[in-house]
Amino acid sequence: MLVCHCRGVSDRQIKRAVKNGACSLREVARETGAGMRCGGCRSNVAQVVQDALKSELRPSSVASSVSSMIRLELPMAAEG
Ligand code: FES
């Protein structure tokens, strides 16, 4: 399922990023590009990240991810 339409990032790509060690929304965004354009998908990306972290059994990472989701301090890509 496509989660980030701007960057064409699927839930499978997000889950793979988490499996490969990404443990926050910021890290997943850095690795996949998800949420780095309009930002409209960030809550959905964050939910997929949180679910993936839970399934990877990394509770401390879930807390960190939730914290970064709340702040949503990801930069937007410049249009043009
Ligand atoms: S839909 Fe993901 S950044 Fe726009």
Describe this protein's structure.
The chain is mostly helical and about 80 residues long. It has a single domain (about 1-70), classed as Arc Repressor Mutant, subunit A (Orthogonal Bundle), CATH 1.10.10.1100. Helix content is about 55%, strand content about 5%. The chain has 4 helices and 2 strands; from the N terminus they run ββαααα. It has helices spanning about 10-20, 25-30, 40-55, 60-70; strands spanning about 1-5, 10. FE2/S2 (inorganic) cluster binds near residues 35 and 41.
CATH domain topology: Arc Repressor Mutant, subunit A
In whole angstroms, the N-to-C terminal distance is: 27 Å
Give a short account of the largest sheet. Answer: 2 strands, antiparallel
CATH class: Mainly Alpha
Name the beta content range: 5-15%
**Order of strands in the sheet with most strands:** 1-2
Counting DSSP H or I runs of 4 or more residues, the number of helices is: 4
Number of domains: 1
Identify the bound ligands: FE2/S2 (inorganic) cluster
Strand segment tally: 2
Name of the CATH superfamily: BFD-like [2Fe-2S]-binding domain
Brief characterization of the structure:
The chain has 80 residues and is mainly alpha-helical.
Topology:
Elements: E1 2-4, E2 9-10, H1 11-19, H2 25-32, H3 42-55, H4 59-71
Antiparallel strand pairs: 1-2
Helix pairs in contact: 1-2, 1-3, 3-4
Bound molecules: FE2/S2 (inorganic) cluster (FES).
What structural keywords apply?
80 residues, mainly alpha, Arc Repressor Mutant, subunit A, two-stranded antiparallel sheet, 6% strand, binds FE2/S2 (inorganic) cluster
